[in-house]
Amino acid sequence: MTSAPQDQDKLDAERDKPTELLYTLKDRPPWSITIILAFQHCITMICSTVPIPFLVSSLLCLGPSHPMRGYFVSTIIFVSGVNTLLQSTLGVRLPIVQGGNFAFLLPSIAILSTNYMSCEAQQSANLTVEDQEELWRDKITFIQGSIAVSSVFQIFLGFTGLIGVLLRWITPLTILPTIMLVGLSMFDIAAVQAAHHWTVSLISTTILILYSQFLTEVSVPFPRLRKGCIVTFSWVKIFKLFAVLLALLTSWLLCWLLTYFEVLQEGSAARTDNGIHLVSQSPWFYVPYPGQWGVPRVMLSAVLGCMAAGFASMVESIGDYIICAKVSGGSPPPMHAINRGVMIEGVGVALAGLFGTGSGTNSYSENIATLVITRVGSRRVVQVSAVFMMILGIFSKFGALCGSLPAPIIASLYFVLFSYIVSASLPMLNMIKIHSPRNLFILGFSVFFSLSISKFVKTHPEIIDTGLPFFDQTLVTLLQTTMFLGSIISCFLDNTVPGSDADRGVTMWQGQFSNTQICAEYNVPGMLACSRKMRWLRYLPVCPKFKKEECFANNPPHFSVDVEHN
What we know:
62% helix
């Protein structure tokens, strides 16, 4: 009779056996399949990242009918396409999509709440149109400059390979509260958006939950092309693939009907006719460019907050690299590919800042789930998807249409997506000894104390008075950034409070980064040939080496998001 541990090993081996793929990482599907699947990746990314420009617009006090809302949507879609193409071609070279990052919004919120009057105060001040224009441009230039400068830290960690060194001190108990606080800090913003029309917002939220949780196993027949141009029909779980998109369309249709039959009063934020002129007045095409809102400027406190956001995103992206390699049929990514992926992601953050998206970018787990469902892990599909994103970003009518989405529907996206962010790091709990009083204290204290300090400083900024105005301003901004506080507190406590490596999760965490294997599919074309001619290149952590190189373990890390249910 087989022992229990042996049975468990067999179950784990069966679980980790890669799903039969139609096309693997290096395969090139027919163009008909490539275009269909690439457009699906594009739509999946857009559904997940569209709430970011809405939130940025509200932080800048731009109303629902302000034309800049559409430009923000177009810009972040365009930049996401550029960064996806860079990452899949020159970076980690996996079919992984880059999109807007909510973590960078926390320091932005702290900047705007500390250094500028509230939107309500602006309305009561009766500012002229020119003054309002100057004010929001002043805000966005500080945000984009701070995001761009903070990316230097991420680029440096990737280029030098220091990301692996820092992971010795950045443990699961540091990452868990940091990511959790990103979502928890957004609840009041979601409530403000929903307050425009709670009834419509709750209905939209119910529709989104229904589609994404209850109807995921409902299948519809869908034609599929296989190798050899053979047409077959497959039952596709459409709600698992496009839950967010279908929910948005359903809620939008509901608001249109309520508007058409005059159920919603004139001036209601839930009416769909509020954004008609936004679409009609937008040009057909607009090419985003760096510095389009003005010359970027820098604020030290914002840079530090964005650095914390960037580091949390780096660690999350490393987990995405590993799981993406597994589901796309590739070998575990080597260290030079991981370092290059982190570096290119930093370049993407710099581009996002310079273009003025109001946020950074990072890897999207939602699109990894699409790889699993479609069983197509081809790199080419994601590269073509990046081209679609850039085209839709230039097609400004599309951005304006997305920008006309009613605020109560946006709130429903916040409720669901922010909830996902809160729970995204929870799988990392199985790395640590969760019943340990030490670990429970560090986790709970880091979250609760950070939220308490942030709330207090936000309502009483005058409490920080050292006599140095610039230093006071920096402290107030940092103390309002819960993610920054949580990362500092949890990192300090976890590395000072006595506890074994096994209890802290360090043993399992470091075990994710051990194996030797040659991983040629991650080499950038031409780079290996150059390193043979210029031997000094082999000492760069981002370049492939002549000798065998350490790769990550075959098993995906336990802290990665469950791509089957994302």
